[in-house]
Write a structure and sequence with these properties.
Elements: H1 16-25, H2 64-70, E1 73-74, E2 83-84, H3 91-101, H4 104-111, H5 115-118, H6 130-142, E3 147-150, H7 153-162, H8 174-188, H9 208-220, H10 226-231, E4 233-241, E5 247-254, E6 257-259, E7 266-268, H11 269-277, E8 280-282, E9 288-290, E10 295-297, E11 299-307, E12 311-316, E13 319-322, E14 325-328, E15 332-334, E16 356-364, E17 372-378, E18 385-389, E19 392-395, H12 398-403, E20 407-413
Parallel strand pairs: 2-3, 6-12, 7-15
Antiparallel strand pairs: 1-3, 4-5, 4-11, 8-11, 9-10, 12-20, 13-14, 16-17, 16-20, 17-18, 18-19
Length: about 425
């Protein structure tokens, strides 16, 4: 049985049929009018149709069945400080859900039920709204302030049903889970109901700002959701043929930036950004097919940030793979908690206010197979930092957040994290 959308009919729209019936019954001595069938009918004015019902969001609530599935351990806590049970090796999942739960505009979107107005159950690229619905239930449970921790088993079941790599309870890469979840939420909440085929834009002869703007608008014709609005930015990719010097520029969308770690024991976030923008030579199997030379050539690839989103996510490339096993770089990264100015790294004309850190996904261990994930989150109500270690949640200082050697993903905001639910 399809789940009720929770949308209510607006009382501002009159029920015209009922008004006519009430008017007829309310007049005593009402007589049927005499019809003159010899007279020509007069032209009728256009019939006024009743206004469309106005959809209003309904606050997300947890049903009794869903509550049983969450298996909550009751206890009064500050809202947003509810832990998540580890279902075996699902700490990778918990370390991503908690920072997203502490993303105030995203959390309020689900808690207030606004997501129901956008849900797209017919999207062939989506999951019939199941990812969005289960995520909404989980976020609601984390923000009731009534549970010490809850069990995300139903949410995990939906994730595993859709993506085979998450069906077991083995350890996974948290950034792969983040990519799946963000894409799943986006497609479930994509406001574009009819997907028109977009033509590839020839940007060779256009000014860069015009080409970038057209590429972004083309992307938005088939992708419009709160995920795009909050988290997605745009980067510029330049390829230069080392034989004929042919240059090709493309503008693409990113959800988060994957930054390389310099080969040193310690670096800064800015060092990682500079390494990301450093020219890379494409040779051997990675050679570029030059459209002018009509063959594969050695080339230079250059990446640049064109536009940053309101919420900026950073991934540090800590893991490399040698066969079936992974290796980890334990490089310590120094990153700002507040006042992060990235305008010097933006190639496009649109600048952004300074960023503040509000979430970190940490990995402790020597490899993906043997490590453990935790999260640091800044609660938008208390404005204090807390550590989320599965079911355990406790206060931490800013110095602990900044000095953690296992920072894997950073969650930054350039907007005020106001929370009003």
């Amino acid at each position: 049985m399809p789940r009720s959308s929770g949308l209510r009919r607006s009382n501002s729209s009159p029920n015209i049929a009922k008004l006519v019936t009430d008017d007829d019954e309310g007049h005593a001595g009402y007589r049927m009018p005499v019809l003159d069938r010899t007279a020509k009918p007069r032209e009728r004015p256009d019939v006024i149709q009743p206004a469309e019902p106005v959809a209003r969001p309904v606050v997300t609530e947890i049903t009794a069945a869903k509550l049983r599935g969450l298996q909550p351990v009751y206890g009064s806590v500050v809202r947003g400080l509810t832990g998540l049970q580890n279902l075996g090796n699902t700490c990778f999942m918990n370390s991503i859900i908690q920072p997203l739960s502490n993303t105030a505009p995203l959390a309020m979107y689900f808690l207030n039920g606004i997501y129901r107005l956008d849900i797209n159950r017919q999207n062939i690229l989506g999951h019939k709204g199941e990812v969005a619905d289960e995520f909404a239930i989980l976020i609601t449970a984390l923000w009731t302030g009534q549970y010490k921790y809850v069990c995300p088993r139903d949410f995990k079941y939906i994730v595993g049903k859709i993506a085979d790599r998450f069906v077991t309870y083995s350890q996974q890469d948290s950034q792969e889970f983040l990519a799946f979840l963000m894409d799943g939420l986006h497609e479930d909440l994509n406001k574009v109901k009819v997907r028109s085929k977009t033509k590839e834009i020839d940007t060779e002869k256009l000014p860069q700002d015009v080409a970038a703007d057209q590429a972004w608008k083309a992307y938005k014709t088939v992708n419009e959701s709160i995920i795009v609005e909050l988290f997605q930015g745009q980067y510029k990719s330049t390829l230069v043929c080392l034989t004929c010097r042919k240059e090709s520029i493309k503008f693409d969308v990113f959800m988060y930036l994957s930054l390389p770690l310099p080969t040193s024991s310690k670096c800064t976030l800015q060092d990682c950004l500079r390494a990301f923008m450093k020219d890379e030579k494409l040779t051997g199997d990675s050679r570029w097919f030059c459209p002018r030379c009509k063959t594969k050539r050695d080339a230079i690839q250059r990446m640049a940030i064109w536009k940053l989103p309101p919420l900026f996510l950073v991934l540090f490339k800590r893991f490399s793979h040698d066969g079936v096993w992974s290796k980890k770089l334990n490089t310590s990264v120094d990153f700002a908690l507040n006042g992060l100015d990235l305008n010097n790294y933006i190639a496009g004309p649109k600048k952004r206010p300074e960023y503040s850190l509000y979430g970190v996904s940490n990995h402790i261990g020597t490899s993906l197979e043997n490590g453990h994930y935790t999260a640091f989150c800044k609660n938008p109500l208390t404005r204090k930092w807390h550590k989320f270690d599965d079911t355990l949640v406790y206060d931490v200082s800013q110095s602990v957040v900044r000095s953690c050697p296992g920072a894997y993903m950073l969650f930054y905001t350039s907007v005020d994290m106001k929370f009003g639910v």
